[in-house]
Fold Putative ferritin-like protein.
Amino acid sequence: MVMNKVVSGGAEREVSTAPQAASVPGSTARMTPARGMAAPVRVAGERVREGHGPVSLLERLGERLSFERMSARMYEALATKLERCGTFESGPRREDLMAIREEEVGHIGILRHAIEKLGGDPRELGRAARVVRVANSGVFQVIVNPRTSLAQGLEAMLMVERADCDGWHMLIEMARAVGEHRMSDSFYLASTEEERHVELLRRWVTHHALQDVIAGAEVLDAA
């Protein structure tokens, strides 16, 4: 430390001219935040491992769980509509719809396990889950409405399953981002089943649309 003498008001005093400590790479010195400044926060990628996972991932898991629960109910309603209205040529059988429902129930189990693993409660209904429930309630009403046909119900369900696929793909990426690779693998298996649901529904809806077109053409030819 260098001490210099200065004169102020006729009095002589010593002051320090030593430079302030700087932060140097490799230095063990710690800087204390100045008053009014926020303390440093964790950077992205760091995880708290005291039983609580990232809040955003838990929120999305709850959203998907609500989605899958509603999907299972929708397939049950479709099976009931099929029993009442019957199917169409190349359309689904009741066992086809119930088989998909069972896969949706399996996805519910995957999501419950993931939420519990991250320290969450599957019984809690977060904001995103409530939004999904409200959004899908309209589709559910289309399916259970006695004035709609099985084909109309299947077409509504196709929109739901397309959105479901996107949701699972998002979960896969989020789980990988926080290092939950086994969880991500289980989500990938669920997403492949959801993609198969989309293909089945698209096939059934397309077959019915083609039948309508052919029937309309035959009517015109006969006129």
In short: The domain at 55-222 is CATH 1.20.1260.10 (Ferritin). The radius of gyration is 31 Å. The chain has one domain: 55-222.
